[in-house]
Design a protein that fits this description.
This protein has 14 helices and ten strands. The chain is an alpha/beta fold. It has two domains: 9-128 and 250-276, 3-Layer(aba) Sandwich (Peroxisomal Thiolase, Chain A, domain 1), CATH 3.40.47.10; 152-193 and 230-248 and 277-398, Peroxisomal Thiolase, Chain A, domain 1, CATH 3.40.47.10. Strands 1, 2, 3, 4, 5, 6, 7, 8, 9 and 10 form a ten-stranded mixed β-sheet that branches.
Length: 399
């Protein structure tokens, strides 16, 4: 492994809650989102031993910023966690990539000299703040100009996933096989204790609640399509209606937090960096297909880093829907997509673990840092598709 410079942005700690079912009755439903995020912040401070008064900023991702997640949840959570009142916080929304974007903003601030210590975090309680609830009746978040530009109409993410499955000729069997594999890997990682060092149990929940050991292609085959709609079926006759609850990420609750410092600060405080933020990138993509941004984002971050696909030891490609990862693998790996997939989401992904929207970027980063450490690997690449047609990509290097 290489060393690190004084101005490098290095990760010195990363922690997450277990992911709970995002519905009433889920293990984290009774925990208010600000308290859920405060738990990860408090645990991160405890594990790193850093005086919270030294934290220059807390940047947290949250997607549905309404109700229990309104009024700048980053600031509310850090105060709830007992941080000094002098510590500021801000909340960002880049849809599913919100806390991955928070990590990028934090790293960029360190590299620019604006921060010495910053926490990038994220939270989403989908059981308490339902997805889409920030769009009020009668409101028009798109505006007349954007609506005119896409006059045929944009579509929900589930329809985008169906369009991707059709464009890349992905069969129901392929989607279900991938999804069963996600549960198998996540169940094995849980059983083997591979998540133990990254988890901060809360509310009696010690492990991820959604993982279903023993999930098989046969059990998934019995599920009905989740997004069938007569109007969309008429508009897109190419869709075969392959996307089900079993090959999609479930509604989820959770939080995660990552501490990033400059290399100089890590040395001064005697902190042991786990990885450095090597390169970041963000792209926009076709908002109709919406979820394909992971392909150009991966290409961009590799090009910017001066690395190739073969240089990357582990990939985390967010499993919003199985077609997202399989289309990415087909484009990036070509005929070797099956070999590439062996390096992807090695401890399972969002289909099994869950996808608490605003928290997922930081959750995945925590899992990726942990997996690189456990395997003695060097480079990890994380990428996430995002609502509206965007994607973040981040390369980290284990130290």
């Amino acid at each position: 492994m290489s060393g690190f410079s004084d101005r490098d942005a290095v990760i010195v700690g990363a922690v997450r809650t277990p992911v709970g079912k995002g519905k009433p009755g889920g293990g984290l439903h009774e925990v208010l989102p600000a308290d859920l995020l405060a738990h990860s912040l408090r645990e991160l401070i405890a594990r790193t031993g850093v005086d919270p008064a030294l934290v220059d900023d807390v940047i947290a991702g949250a997607v549905t910023q309404v109700g229990d997640q309104a009024v700048n949840i980053a600031r509310n959570a850090l105060l709830g966690a007992g941080f000094p009142e002098s510590v500021p916080g801000t909340t960002v929304d880049r849809q599913c990539g919100s806390s991955q974007q928070a990590i990028s903003f934090a790293a960029q601030g360190v590299q620019a000299g604006a921060y010495d210590i910053v926490i990038a975090a994220g939270v989403e309680s989908m059981s308490r703040v339902p997805m889409g609830s920030s769009v009020l009746p009668g409101s028009d978040p798109f505006g007349r100009d954007m609506t005119a530009r896409y006059s045929e109409g944009l579509v929900p993410q589930g329809i985008s996933a169906e369009l991707i499955a059709a464009k890349w000729n992905l069969s129901r069997a392929q989607l279900d096989e991938f999804s069963a594999g996600s549960h198998e890997k996540a169940a094995a990682a849980t059983k083997d204790g591979l998540f133990d060092t990254e988890l901060a149990p809360i509310a009696g929940l010690n492990t991820d609640e959604i993982i279903r050991p023993g999930t098989s292609v046969d059990t998934l085959a019995g599920l009905r399509p989740a997004f069938y709609n007569e109007a969309y079926a008429a508009r897109f006759p190419q869709i075969n209606w392959e996307v089900t609850p079993g090959n999609s990420s479930p509604l989820s609750d959770g939080s995660a937090a990552v501490m990033i410092t400059s290399g100089a600060t890590a040395r001064t405080l005697g902190l042991t960096p786990l990885a450095r933020i090597h390169t970041t990138a963000v792209v926009g993509s076709d908002p109709l297909y919406m979820l394909t941004g992971v392909i150009p984002a991966t290409e961009k971050v590799l090009r910017r880093a001066g690395l190739s696909l073969d240089d990357i030891d582990l990939f985390e490609v967010n499993e919003a829907f199985a077609p997202v990862v399989l289309s990415w693998a087909a484009e990036m790996g070509g005929r070797s997509d099956s070999a590439l997939l062996q390096r992807v989401n090695v401890n399972g992904g969002a289909i099994a673990i869950g996808h608490p929207l605003g928290a997922s970027g930081a959750r995945i980063m925590t899992t990726l840092v942990n997996a690189l450490q456990q395997r003695g690997a060097r480079y990890g690449l994380q990428t996430m598709c995002e609502g509206g047609g965007m994607a973040n990509a981040t390369i980290i290097e284990r130290l």
